[in-house]
Amino acid sequence: MKSTQPMKTFQALGALISYPTGALIEALPDVHAVIVEEGLVDRTRRGAIKDLMHELEAADLLDLEEQYVGLFDRGRATALHLFEHVHGDSRDRGQAMVDLHQVYAAGGFELGPRELPDYLPAMLEFLSHRPLEEAREMLRDCAHILRSIGCALRERGSAYAVVFDALLVAVGEDGLGAAIDSIPSDETDIDVLWAEAPAFGPASGNASCSAAASGRGCTPPAA
To answer: Taking the model in full, what pTM does it have?
Structure first.
């Protein structure tokens, strides 16, 4: 039987790869609480995610912003707009955007005025309000893209890679591989309640990315 329970973990992981702001840094304990409470991410990866959060909390915000732009906004390998990896700048990308936007709209999900529908954190927000198996199915269709981005981040030594590792495993795919290591954190001291109204909006509907997942670890499949 397919699970009908939505998982806010998807949006929590999306928040971690969103543009860093003071509000996001302040919300990290709530983000962590969601991930721990739902248990969709295994303990080892939760430890690595906690390490990423500590890194974000310890850094100067201006430095974080500069690093984020350099990492995600300059070059296709780590772009967070998924259709850029599939369609590049072709006309097909435009039609895919329209189709996905219609899916969001049909489900009552409103994007921000400057947000594109293929932006991964927005998609994860949408999926956090869908039944778990629907969310997994859509992300499995995108798994080869998630793996490609995660591997590129890992090659650059970025702690953000663990988010993609966690997403892959959460939807039933192999993770990025043994290079994503972390000693499990002691979470018995976590005493953070979920926020009454976290920055998670309503959504429903269904959608699919446009290719099947392939490959294992960070080694491309043979031609």
So the answer is: 0.76
